[in-house]
Amino acid sequence: MAGSSKSSSASGFSRKRCGCGDDVVVFTAGSKAKNPGKRFRRCPNWKDVNRSCGLFEWVEEDDKLGDLLGGGCCNSSEMLIETLKLKNSKLHMKLEKERTSSRLTKKLLLMAWVMLFFVCMWCLLKCKCGTKFGV
Asked: Taking Cα atoms as reference points, which of 69, 47, 55 lies closest to residue 20?
């Protein structure tokens, strides 16, 4: 299929098999596809009409980890790469949340200091205005 890339993984877990009895292969739809970036499982013999069982199924978002552990695999280094990419993505989202929270905290702290400054100035002015100097 033009516009798709093969991406799969392996482990000691049982692998998913297609109707041909071969390990299912996981692909990612390319940019020219109807669903770019979406992952799908397919019979490894899909190019050979005479050998292929015709298996095709979309990988659900919540099934990515299960896909990594048994969804048509090539080698353990590819599984490690895919697992690390997933963890990296989660860490990037967590980091962005922390950055947003940090920015908000800094703004609130600055506003508190400004308010404290004005309250102190107001108190000083009020005290000086109500008393006589030199007494």
From this structure: 55
* Confidence grade of residue 100 (pLDDT, cut at 50, 70, 90): very high
The reported pTM is: 0.37
Q: What is the helix (H) or strand (E) element at residue 94, kind and residue range?
A: helix 76-130
CB atoms under 10 Å from CB of 43, counted, come to 22
In the chain, what percentage of residues exceed pLDDT 70?
Answer: 71
The pLDDT of residue 40 is above 70: yes
Could you tell me which residues come within 8 angstroms of residue 9 by beta carbon, excluding any fewer than 6 positions away? 26, 67, 68, 69, 71, 73, 74, 75, 76, 78, 79, 82, 83
Mean pLDDT to the nearest integer, 106-128 = 92
Query: What are the CB-based long-range contacts (under 8 Å, 24+) for 27-34?
Result: 27/1, 28/4, 29/3, 29/4, 30/1, 30/2, 30/3, 30/4, 30/5, 31/3, 32/2, 32/3, 33/1, 33/3, 33/4
- Written as six digits, the tokens of 36 are 């770019």
